[in-house]
Amino acid sequence: MLQVTELLKGLELSDITEVERLVSPTPDPLWALAMPADRSFDRWHLATQKAKRFGYLPVGVGSTDDLNYLQAHLDNNNSWDSSENIRLATQLNLKNWFSERHQDLEEDNEGSFPRGVWPTNIGPKNSFWFPFDRQGNHLDPWWMLLVPAQESWLAPISLAYGNWNECPAAYVHAALLQYWGQRFGASLAGISGDTVEMSIDNPPSTQEESLSLALEHYLYCPDIVDQGCETIEHLAALLMNGHAWSFWWD
After folding, report:
1. Which has the closest alpha carbon to 159: 210, 124, 196?
2. With contact defined as beta carbons under 8 Å apart, do 204 and 240 qualify?
3. Which pLDDT belongs to residue 53?
4. What is residue 2's predicted lDDT score, i.e. its pLDDT?
5. Are 201 and 184 in contact (CB under 8 A)?
6. Is the distance from CB of 153 to CB of 86 less than 8 angstroms?
């Protein structure tokens, strides 16, 4: 088994001194690193470029409270079956899933969705939440996970993430990550108790494509509109040419 000191050296993170091994629902080690605020995005991005050959995915978590919340969730999944969830993810018919979600939300919203006009003063979203607190201040340190996953879409399954309140089950997160990964180059960037963030290589570049994607995002995570930007058009404007997607569930 790869030692954590070798892993940190390979990721150019040898100077990180606060490292915790978390309880993991899989046999592979799950590491948490306390990252300094200085050059946080640069170091996360460099680690993502190097980590795949070691079989790990660097994923931002956020504060110590965020880490503890995620660890408490992991503690409750000792009988987790990763293989079954991978099977469910690969067999999920997303066309049917979107259709069923559309029907459910349409009923919840009394037949209408939160629509509006295209905003003229909204630009693309290109920043993540995970290194910052809720007031926008840089966390020092902020926590980063090294998740045992050969592919980004497998990470929610490695973390047994989801299946509470309106947050979808882990295999749904995985299936959507794979789907959006193929279409837009989406990969998991951050995850915490109630938040998922994705890094996007090839974002939509037209209003039509962005609106179609924004509807998919709303079906996946209604709270980002209902308790956030208020209309699907506003969300679409953030997605068009944007390289950072953020989702949260109340």
Report:
1. 196
2. yes
3. 85
4. 65
5. yes
6. no
Write out 66-117 in H/E/C secondary structure.
Answer: HHHHHHHHHHCCCCCCHHHHHHHHHHCCHHHHHHHHHHHHHHHCCCCCCCCC
Q: Contact, 21 vs 15, CB < 8 A?
A: no
- Higher pLDDT, residue 93 or 131: 93
DSSP 139: P
User: What tokens appear for 186 in the block?
Assistant: 């989406």
**Nearest C-alpha neighbor of 158 from the set 39, 27, 38:** 27
Which pLDDT score, from 0 to 100, does residue 65 have?
92
pLDDT at 116: 95
Phi and psi for 249 in degrees, rounded to 5?
Answer: -120, 130
How far, in whole angstroms, is CA 49 from its chain's centroid? 17
Q: Which two tokens stand for residue 183?
A: 């279409």
CA proximity to 163, closest of 68, 65, 246, 80 = 80
Higher pLDDT, 205 or 7: 205
Spell out where the chain has E strands. Answer: 19-22, 30-35, 56-62, 142-148, 186-191, 195-200, 244-248
Q: What is the DSSP letter of 25?
A: S
Least confident window among 37-41, 105-109, 169-173 = 37-41
Place of tokens 């109340």: 250
Residues contacting 25, CB < 8 A, separation 6+:
74, 77, 78, 80, 82, 158, 159, 160
Q: Answer whether residue 1 shows pLDDT above 70.
A: no
Under 8 Å between Cβ of 136 and 127: no
